[in-house]
């Protein structure tokens, strides 16, 4: 064998900060704030210079529901990365499961109201969205494409 197992024995202990509350669920931001900051963990957000994030303001109920789905998707992915290094953190795992449940519920609602978001949600016998205009056909014109 080219390498022994001991060659890849990596110590991850430097990721743990002794005495810190990094691993506590109360250190995790709400999905909306984490999505806007680009980081779900309160003590990990460091703004560049004095810049800050801009709030997202949905213009319709459809955009509002889609933003909520995106926020939850971001939170799920960020928690998944965290759990890769902290698989024993049951509170973070339960929070991720809660977000997955909520996102799936919202995606079903969105599908019923506006149509599928992903191809695996399509149940029609034909591509019905081909006959419908794309959002940029009616909302904003060609300059946004």
Characterise this structure:
It is built from four helices and no strands. With 145 residues, the chain is an all-alpha fold. It has a domain of 95 residues. The chain is flat and about 45 Å long. The termini are far apart.
Taking the alpha carbons of the first and last residues, their distance comes to: 53 Å
Mean pLDDT: 77
Shape: flat
User: Helical segment tally?
Assistant: 4
Compute the gyration radius: what is it? 20 Å
Number of strands: 0
Would you identify the regions where 5 or more consecutive residues have pLDDT less than 50?
Answer: 12-21
Strand percent estimate = under 5%
Tell me roughly what share of residues is in helical segments: 40-55%
Topology:
Elements (H helix, E strand, L loop, with lengths): L30 H7 L23 H25 L4 H25 L20 H4 L7
Question: Top keywords for this entry?
Answer:
145 residues, mainly alpha, 4 helices, flat, single chain, 42% helix
Summarize the structure.
The chain is mainly alpha-helical and 145 residues long. Helices cover 42% and strands 0% of the residues.
